[in-house]
């Protein structure tokens, strides 16, 4: 019986670990842009954040609640784009585990070209984070500059998920 309980506990631990990312892909702007275009027929929520950004960290639990609510909807996808430096990748992975982030996280390793790619995402984006951009069929449908409340996040998703 003791062995059975141990096996069950191990199984539960493995399921928990599997729900979180063990690795984070690092991409350049062009790869992220292709990824956004590829998510056809979906409402794609793209949140730009960093582990060192207090407002970003504050809003992430709301994003996870909303992601968990919609994750089984085939018309919905959330991607968290970390703007941490590539040398801090291990810290990002640890952060994912500690904060139980369930949405896909990628690391945008393109800091040197920020002045090039930021205006391509949104001409009015001044470079501050957090920023959340909503896409439907690869087209931007909403831009939110700054921290988002759970209510605003859900309202924007509901408006565009139709």
UniProtKB/TrEMBL annotation:
Signal peptide as annotated in the record: 1-21
Annotated GO MF terms: isomerase activity
Gene3D superfamilies linked: Glutaredoxin
Top-rank lineage group of the source organism: Bacteria
Keyword hit for NAD: no
Residues in Thioredoxin domain copies: 13-162
Short name of any one Pfam family annotated for the protein: Thioredoxin
Alphabetized UniProt keyword annotations: Isomerase, Redox-active center, Signal
Protein name: Thiol-disulfide isomerase/thioredoxin
Organism expressing this protein natively: Chryseobacterium shigense
Lineage: Bacteria, Pseudomonadati, Bacteroidota, Flavobacteriia, Flavobacteriales
């Amino acid at each position: 019986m003791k062995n059975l309980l141990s096996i069950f506990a191990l199984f539960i631990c493995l399921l928990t670990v599997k729900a979180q990312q063990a690795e984070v892909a690092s991409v350049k702007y062009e790869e992220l842009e292709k990824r956004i275009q590829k998510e056809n027929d979906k409402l794609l929520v793209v949140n730009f954040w960093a582990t060192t950004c207090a407002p970003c960290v504050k809003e992430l639990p709301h994003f996870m609640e909303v992601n968990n609510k919609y994750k089984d909807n085939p018309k919905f996808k959330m991607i968290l784009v970390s703007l941490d430096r590539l040398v801090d990748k291990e810290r990002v992975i640890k952060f994912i585990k500690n904060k139980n982030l369930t949405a896909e996280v990628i690391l945008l390793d393109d800091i040197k070209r920020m002045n090039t790619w930021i205006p391509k995402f949104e001409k009015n984006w001044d470079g501050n984070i957090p920023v959340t951009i909503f896409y439907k069929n690869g087209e931007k449908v909403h831009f939110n500059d700054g921290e988002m409340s759970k209510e605003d996040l859900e309202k924007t998703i509901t408006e565009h998920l139709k």
